[in-house]
Amino acid sequence: MLNQNRSNQLFERAQNFIPGGVNSPVRAFRAVGGKPLFMQKAKGAYLYDEDGNRYIDMINSWGPMILGHAHEGVQQAIARALPDSLSFGAPTAREVEMAELIISMVPSIEKVRMVNSGTEATMSAIRLARGFTGRDKIIKLEGCYHGHGDSFLIAAGSGALTMGTPDSPGVTRGTALDTLIAPYNNLQAIEQLVSENKGAIAALILEPVAGNMGCIAPQPGYLQGLRSLCDREGIVLIFDEVMTGFRLAKGGAQERFGVQADLTTLGKIIGGGMPVGAYGGRRDIMDFVSPSGPVYQAGTLSGNPIAMAAGMAMLSYLNEQTDFYQQLDAIANRIVSDLKEVLQQLGLRYTINQVGSMYSLFFTEQNVIDYDTAKTSDTERFGRYFRHMLEQGVYLAPSQYETLFVSAALGEQELQQLKTASYESLKALNRA
Ligand SMILES: N[C@H](C=O)CCC(=O)O
């Protein structure tokens, strides 16, 4: 049994002063049972909790720690920036360099605006699409998650789905009516929505690879079909690449699948672990943003110098490597093939989805291609699996509906530990 005394004490204290004891719901371990672990530090592939337990980290801060924790290049860039002050509320050279670097790496982005989180990026992107098209409605896909802006907390994935509140109270009826919902991977359903709402749809927003109902890949031709439909109907196609950006390729999912978005939202990796988001895309659309255009969006801390220093260090590193993504994918491929071998040895037929360095093990035998099929997963079984893995030193995402993120810091020793832990955990589950 894990010694969790100090974490438990902190959780007790936290519950008095922080709703549910955590600052983001999935962290509470509600869906997997048990109490959350409070982390003290991390280095490379490992997390260390307040009780001194060590875990292989398969969340990596939900994506940003693609190089592993406390990467020297990123740490040093922050240290170099610190003496120059923490915030100016005025333009800096680093923001210009950051914009140039993002644009050089993501071909569909011609102009970009920095914000402070993925949520800000998606909220700003749909306002911009509405201002640009003069239309009110957006299409959002079931189980996709675009942060906690009101327009997106309808059939939402991630923590909202995990907590059983995919339609959050507090979202006004009017806002909800402007968000039209369609299933993921179903082009026909979107075509129908568009024909029923001709000329009224400003934007279609989706995660090009869904990561917030577990990992789900777009089916062949799906993204291309959406692109053609949006072109035909004058709808702004928004790819939420907060998870997939700079993770699935230098140019994100759009490079990997060969489909360009009109607007792209970014976060996570672009801050190197600091709170950063961005939205960018076609010049004619981005020029609608204030002060070059009428659509208002602002932020005191946007383009924060320390966050820009961390993000620049991270993106420059990724940009300079020639075969980084092949190597990262190879690590993920090995983890997935080990897991398949373990399932086979134990005679289990669970579903594994993987796209590059994102993957999920679903406790269902069905093909998981959308929200409904993701929900066929046995979440109680997942919870038990999660706890067994934790006991064996592996920290998975504490929800069936979150993808796992592979980091480049995983080496042979960690891969072997992962395989053994999976085998022992699934065997124990099977026995129960
Ligand atoms: N799916 C979310 C991040 O991408 C989960 C993290 C959170 O809500 O705290």
UniProtKB/TrEMBL annotation:
GO terms for molecular function: glutamate-1-semialdehyde 2,1-aminomutase activity; pyridoxal phosphate binding; transaminase activity. Its cofactor is pyridoxal 5'-phosphate. It catalyses: (S)-4-amino-5-oxopentanoate = 5-aminolevulinate. It is found in: Cytoplasm. The keyword Isomerase applies. Keywords: Cytoplasm, Isomerase, Porphyrin biosynthesis, Pyridoxal phosphate. Gene3D superfamilies: Aspartate Aminotransferase, domain 1, Type I PLP-dependent aspartate aminotransferase-like (Major domain). One of its GO terms (biological process) is protoporphyrinogen IX biosynthetic process. Homodimer. Belongs to the class-III pyridoxal-phosphate-dependent aminotransferase family. HemL subfamily. This is Glutamate-1-semialdehyde 2,1-aminomutase. The lineage of its organism: Bacteria, Pseudomonadati, Bacteroidota, Cytophagia, Cytophagales.
